[in-house]
Inverse folding.
């Protein structure tokens, strides 16, 4: 069974930083791209960043230059380092992987950016 568990969210002031982690199990982690997605209240789910199995990365324009996605295959973990956070980054952040012709989502972690 594919399982994804995100952690590291919290309340942070505008301009602050957070680092999210997502631990995966139930599949060969190193063989798959992994993404971070977010959903703000009243808004559509948004793909934030993806890291390929070789480590190449892609970002949505809104976070380019502020967020960094990375992975540690020996720990089955993907990270999202977030800097210069703004209130528009407030959302539930989850990790996502497509395995076995199915999209899998983990329980998300809430990030709140507010003064």
């Amino acid at each position: 069974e594919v399982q994804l568990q995100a952690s590291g969210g919290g309340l942070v002031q505008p301009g602050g930083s957070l680092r999210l982690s997502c631990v995966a199990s139930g599949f060969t982690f190193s063989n798959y791209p992994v993404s971070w997605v977010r959903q703000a209240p009243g808004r559509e789910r948004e793909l934030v960043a993806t890291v390929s199995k070789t480590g190449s990365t892609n970002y949505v324009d809104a976070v380019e230059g502020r967020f960094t996605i990375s992975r540690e295959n020996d720990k089955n973990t993907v990270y999202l380092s977030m800097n210069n956070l703004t209130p528009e980054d407030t959302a539930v952040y989850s990790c996502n992987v497509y395995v076995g012709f199915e999209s899998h989502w983990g329980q998300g972690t809430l990030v709140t950016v507010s003064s």
User: Anything to note?
Assistant: The mean pLDDT is 96. The first strand starts at residue 3 and ends at 7.
